[in-house]
Amino acid sequence: MNADGRVVVVVGLGGMGLAVAKRLGSGSTLVLADCNAATLEAAAVEIRADGYRVVEHQTDVSDEASVASLARSAAELGRVEVLAHTAGVSPVQASVEAILRVDLLGTALMLDAFGSMIANGGAGVFIASMAGTFFQQDPDLERRLATTPTSELLTLPELAPQAVPDPGVAYGLAKRANQLRVRAASLLWGQRGARVNSISPGVISTPMGSAELDGPSGDYMRQMVNASPAGRLGTPHDIASAVEFLAGPNSTFITGTDLLVDGGVVATVLTGAGNDA
Prior knowledge:
Rossmann fold; 7-stranded parallel sheet; 47% helix
């Protein structure tokens, strides 16, 4: 591999991650990471067949050593110019503990590991969720979710098992924390001349999205989508387009922010326009 070449890292190879990898990986060394070996292999085979230069790295984002290994391996391949972190689990897929470890701790570990080695001029994009936008907390808790050292994050009393009643609450807390920690991390990333932002998707047509639509909140989610200005589910390509913008040359003055890509669902709900849908 060319040690001076451009490296793009995509973590999480579900529907969104696969679309992002295909959108951003051309002409680069594309590092693909996922915790599931079969998913990782299938994605690598598919993308390599399209002519991409692919390196696979099985990674558990909730494990500090695993994340550190991914970051080191990526840096050895060249200039890590883009990190797209899409890994996560949803309320119908996982327990409270798993959601907090993967969706919350995993994001914090990735911000730390890549914030210390991202290339000058590089960019990170982390997938949060519109659920985080709905789940804003009191200012003191928001400050602690944003700035508590990663090693202490899961010891916050509000994240104790007895304080989080169900996976839906865990998911909302985790995704709100993602938005906040990306904002806070932008200061440190900026010291390296790099940017980092988050994207909060709405209901996206992926396997995870389909599982949620088939779950207990599915009817309410459909109601929100139908009442929204777009009136449709999002696609992985909608998210890939947003990642491409935030990782590319047309957004060099944008960092530390969250971009809602939800078809107007949040606007509909917060204005009360969808109450009678």
